[in-house]
Amino acid sequence: MQVKLTNRQQHILWATVRHYIATAEPVGSKTLIEEFDLGVSSATIRNVMVVLEKSGLLYQPHTSAGRIPSDSGYRIYVDKLMKPSETLAREVESTFQQRLHWEDWSLEALLQGAAQILATLSGCITLITMPQSQTAQLRHLQLVQVETGKIMLIVVTDGYETHSRLMELFPESADTKLDPEAIDRELQIVSNFLNTHLRGCTLLELSQLDWSKLDQEFQRYGEFLKSSLTELLHRASTPSTTQIMIRGVGEVLRQPEFSQVQQVQTIMHLLEEEQEQLWRLICEEPEVEETGKSKVTVRIGAENPLEPIQTCSLISSTYRRGSQPVGSVGVLGPTRLDYENAIAVVAAAADYLSEAFSHTA
Description:
The chain is built from 13 helices and ten strands.
């Protein structure tokens, strides 16, 4: 809905949203006069609030109460009236640098630490997805003979996630006597060759390689490698319910918006039992700014396609390795959210994780 507001209407909408975010109390003209230097009379503020209500940007929860922002009111506030806190963004970046050490930590420890810091700073439920395996880079590949004629392909990603595939090497040679020691030597040579040339490739890139380019003496491994990597890719690209790290649930559920037990139960069910739906939502790739960074996506109330969080706001962005998105970071809270701060901390967290992943080999 396109709503054109005058400067005065924008200012009064801004003040109404700011007061309600801070207090969770409906706002009247007298309160705005006392708290904000609006430069107009109480009667003028009342008239403007009536116009904003007719435009669908404010509403009265009760007949005798003041007004509170609607989802549309928050949308105009986020898009046109607020500016993310640059000061907080710098503080978040500094906090990450002081408390997280991606050079020394494992991937899981890094993401757990980032999720906890983000939950503390935002006061929201924090959601950080584990890196998607399709975009994870190859750290090590090994071919191992487990018994005569059967070998295992083991792939270790840069996040130390391991995938393996067992397969019969030469089914057409079942009656042919194979030399296990010769096979071991060949497998080691092929493993060394592949590690030298493929380290840093993604699983998706591995599946698209032309295995016919292998040296002639190793051609017989080509079909095995191609089929094995295709299956590993399919397995790795299937979303898992363990892919989202969640922190800060207890704090946000103490907000007055979550006073009804039924509402809390539906949100908890989504977080615990329906993570695949949530994963698909926050992993939708946002637009990319000219700087190459991912934009922050803000979904307010009914803009969320998942019913359990249609009274919430979800703010998310992607973290990247270079230009390649590998995962998402987000916060979930009531629509009465301090958007300036929430957007700033999500952007800072995504930038930090992108830097960390871009420096991992």
